[in-house]
Amino acid sequence: MTAESDRLTSQPERLYAVVPCAGVGSRAGVEGPKQYHPVAGRPVVAHTLAALAAVRRLHGVMVVLSPDDDRFEAVAPAHPPGWAVRTGGASRADSVAAGIRALRERGAAPSDWVLVHDAARCLIQPAWVDALIDACLLDPVGGLLALPVADTLKQSDGGRAVSTVDRQGKWAAQTPQMFRLGVLADALDHVGSAVTDEASAIEAVGLSPRLVPGHFCNFKVTWPGDFALADQLLPSLAGQHGDMSR
């Protein structure tokens, strides 16, 4: 091994976050993209980014916007310049892949970690992200925040329940989802744009992500009623990483 290769391999692995923020949120029932709808006095994505900014081990947070986004800088003025790109695609996977490319352009290595987090999971807390990092940093695959399914699951057909799905061993996936940059990039390239989360891509190439218990408050703002619930919950969570209601 040469001195140069020894220097490179001895460099500590860095951790980055990618926040896909290019969707329109058609199910949310609000005017405009849901990530810019106000909750507890601030746009949804502003809460998300403030929480991630408080995770000290993150080297940077890359936000992936739609090409025609003209609102981000106004609602997230504190976000570091150069850490938002307007290269979001038609699907979540396309936007995450674009975020990984942007990180590579800024010097991220294949061995670095990427934590992908939904812009619409605005109740995320730094402590929950740190718990994921602690659980996955030495894991050979990586993992994701998730919750064991507690409710009875029904298979529907035409708006009627036709069978009950066994909930044993079932988990509801959350984010962040944390994987090596190179492995995740290759997995996304392998499976294409149809996957709905990064763990699905990792599973498709034969790997098994670690399930790290999350928190019931870490839900994705999706339906109209979710905004009212987030509005009630955010103030009680705010003290965990500073005042998020300003």
From TrEMBL:
Keyword Cell division: no
Transmembrane segments: none
EC number(s) stated in the UniProt entry for this protein: 2.7.7.60
Keywords, ordered alphabetically: Isoprene biosynthesis, Nucleotidyltransferase, Transferase
GO MF terms held by the record: 2-C-methyl-D-erythritol 4-phosphate cytidylyltransferase activity
Catalysed transformations (reactions): 2-C-methyl-D-erythritol 4-phosphate + CTP + H(+) = 4-CDP-2-C-methyl-D-erythritol + diphosphate
PROSITE patterns xref list: ISPD
Site annotation Transition state stabilizer: residues: R27, K34
UniProt xrefs under InterPro entries: IspD (IPR001228), IspD/TarI (IPR034683), IspD/TarI_cytidylyltransf_bact (IPR050088), ISPD_synthase_CS (IPR018294), Nucleotide-diphossugar_trans (IPR029044)
Site residues by UniProt (Positions MEP for the nucleophilic attack): R167, K220
UniProt xrefs under Gene3D superfamilies: Spore Coat Polysaccharide Biosynthesis Protein SpsA, Chain A
Pathway(s) of this molecule: Isoprenoid biosynthesis; isopentenyl diphosphate biosynthesis via DXP pathway; isopentenyl diphosphate from 1-deoxy-D-xylulose 5-phosphate: step 2/6
Keyword Disulfide bond: no
Pfam family, any one: IspD
Top EC class of this enzyme: transferase
Sequence similarity: Belongs to the IspD/TarI cytidylyltransferase family. IspD subfamily.
Family annotation (NCBIfam families): ispD
Role according to the record: Catalyzes the formation of 4-diphosphocytidyl-2-C-methyl-D-erythritol from CTP and 2-C-methyl-D-erythritol 4-phosphate (MEP).
Protein name as annotated: 2-C-methyl-D-erythritol 4-phosphate cytidylyltransferase
Species, as recorded: Leptothrix discophora
